[in-house]
Amino acid sequence: MGYAIGKAPAADGTGTEPEDVQQWLWSLYRSNKPSIARGGVVTGTSSMEYAVAPAVLVIPAGDSRRLVVPTDRVTVPTAAAPSSGSRTDIIYAGSDGAIKVGTSLPENNVMIDKRRVPAGITATTATTSLLGDRLWTPLVGGTMGRLLTWEESIASGTQMPAGDKTVMSKTITVEEDRLVDFRHFMTASVSVITDPELGRVDWGTVEWSLHIDGALQWTWAYKVENTEATQSFSANRGLTAGTHTIELRRWVWAENRPIYWAGGAKRWAGTNLTALDIGALA
Predict the structure, then answer these.
(1) Are 54 and 39 in contact (CB under 8 A)?
(2) In this predicted model, what pLDDT tens digit does every residue of 4-25 receive, in sequence order?
(3) Quick one: pLDDT at residue 282?
(4) What is the DSSP string of 137-157?
(5) Which site from 140, 209, 229, 255 is most exposed, i.e. has the minimal number of CB atoms within 10 Å?
(6) Distances (CA, A) of 207 to 49, 250, 261
(7) Could you tell me which residues are beta bridge partners of residue 235?
(8) What dihedral angle (degrees, nearest 10) is formed by the CA atoms of 171, 41, 180, 155?
(9) How far is CA 110 from CA 69, 90, 133, 141, 206, in A?
(10) Under a CB-based contact definition with an 8 Å cutoff, are residues 225 and 140 in contact?
């Protein structure tokens, strides 16, 4: 220990030890838990297997020590789908770099993905990924990047359902206190209608609210007119270390329900929410 990394060994053989490299890696990454540095995207296949992209993982190896573990591009099998209900698959890896699938996460292993397996399916393309549960490790002074994303599921060109609805509930995990930016976009228009009480109505409204761990953080509303338009809202909040549940709720005025637009020839921006890590609070 204490020998400079990159320096040639001394004549007596003294040189860099594995512990030196492990401490150097600890100085580069902020995470104190098994985490993903890059890659590891999981996709479904036409069978009961998952395709996992190459990744680099960071795993604690003792006090002020880290291992950086590269993994190959692999396809890993999972068990047959349950006959009823659903199952949660955990795709994970440890210090040996082997990608595995189970229903729980072993100690000191990295969770690469968590996926819901519905009853009766025969292909993992029918599973649902909970990407908000992934734990990324930023470089010291860096950002964890995108923590969460949600996209409106109703078809483009259809009216939004009236009333109040929780449209998203996901979790995100931050190992230390972090500042997180929430960005929301909505693309919509309304038809011109005649209401018995209001007369000619050429507008509508959609109210959104974001909740963290059950507590309301913000409410915002968009006035929607009879021309397609994209509107946006953003705000940031400090999150303490740990796992947090993020909920997005939508309320649609029933008298003139907006029409949702996404993609198409004009590549409309759609309606979505993204949570981006800005950086450490301290």
Answers:
(1) yes
(2) 878 888 888 788 888 888 898 8
(3) 65
(4) -PBTT----EEEEEE--SPTT
(5) 140
(6) 41, 6, 17
(7) 182
(8) -70
(9) 10, 10, 11, 22, 40
(10) no
Q: Which domains does the chain have, with CATH numbers?
A: 1-141 (no CATH), 143-282 (2.60.120.40)
Q: Supply the DSSP symbol for 247.
A: E
26: its two tokens: 């600890």
Do 179 and 235 touch, CB atoms closer than 8 A? no
In this structure, are residues 100 and 93 in contact, taking their beta carbons and an 8 Å threshold? yes
- Under DSSP, is residue 27 helix (H, G, I), strand (E, B) or coil? helix
* pTM over 0.85, yes/no: no
How far apart CA 252 and CA 139 sit, in angstroms, is 42
Name the 3-class secondary structure at 234: strand
- The pLDDT of residue 101 is 97
Q: Give phi and psi for 19, each to the nearest 5.
A: -65, -30
- In one-letter notation, the amino acid at residue 253 is W
The radius of gyration computed from the CA coordinates of the chain, to the nearest angstrom, equals 24
In angstroms, how far is the first alpha carbon of the chain from the final one? 30
Instruction: Name the stretches of the chain with pLDDT < 70.
Output: 1-2, 131-135, 195-196, 198-199, 282
Q: Give the Cα separation of 105 and 27 in Å (integer).
A: 26
Look-up of token digits 């659903």 = 86
CB 251 within 8 A of CB 207: yes
Name the 3-class secondary structure at 131: helix
Token pair 């507590």 is at which residue?
215
AA letter at 37: A
